[in-house]
Design brief:
Structural class: alpha/beta
Number of helices: 7
Strand order of the largest sheet: 1-2-3-5-7-8-9
Shape: globular
Strand content: 15-25%
Distance between the termini: 41 Å
Length: 193
């Protein structure tokens, strides 16, 4: 068993077949990873997304920077696949379905493709100590409204202690009120860049 606790993967922005074949084997060799970082990775390959979910149950920190997924539902499923996740950092993350039509995906579009948990399911997950983010970083070039709406609706911000956000517009600042209302009792650190 490996003692590696951190894994950072940097790609050239392509999902070439050799890389796609390498992911599952690499992940199997590193079962103790707690911190996972993806830089410039196109996460369009289903074996990559399935390998992540299957091989990293101990991941507590996930960073996606300059990454692209096929849809917001794939993004949500990726985040959802790490049961011990406590820190999430999203910088320049996007999904192809947001590019269709006028550019950014809306909350209505995201809600129509992402299964929402019932209040009972959310309570059971929280009671089991699962999926409570403690630290959240939301950078620029991110559909902040869709991400924040999903995080709040899923109850992921309920125990948040640290929040760092780079609002790109006045509308983004308004979106932050939802996070602040959801985290007010536990939030200890707030950074607006």
């Amino acid at each position: 068993s490996s003692s590696t606790s951190s894994l950072s993967l940097n790609s050239d922005g392509t999902d070439a077949p050799p890389a796609a074949l390498l992911w599952p084997a690499l992940f199997r060799a590193l079962p103790a990873v707690a911190r996972l970082e993806f830089l410039y990775v196109l996460m369009t390959d289903p074996p990559l997304r399935h390998a992540l979910a299957a091989h990293f149950p101990l991941v507590t920190s996930l960073t996606l920077q300059f990454c692209r997924l096929p849809s917001f539902a794939d993004f949500a499923a990726l985040v959802d696949s790490f049961p011990a996740l406590a820190e999430l950092s999203l910088l320049y993350v996007g999904w192809a379905d947001a590019d269709a039509g006028d550019g950014a995906g809306t909350e209505a579009e995201a809600g129509s493709v992402i299964p929402r948990r019932s209040e009972t399911e959310k309570g059971e997950m929280a009671g089991a100590g699962r999926r409570r983010l403690m630290r959240l970083t939301l950078g620029r070039d991110l559909d902040l409204e869709t991400v924040v709406d999903w995080l709040v609706a899923e109850g992921l911000c309920a125990g948040l202690r640290s929040l760092s956000v780079c609002p790109a517009s006045p509308a983004d600042v308004l979106v932050l009120w939802d996070v602040l209302r959801a985290t007010a009792p536990s939030l200890e650190e707030l950074a607006l860049d």
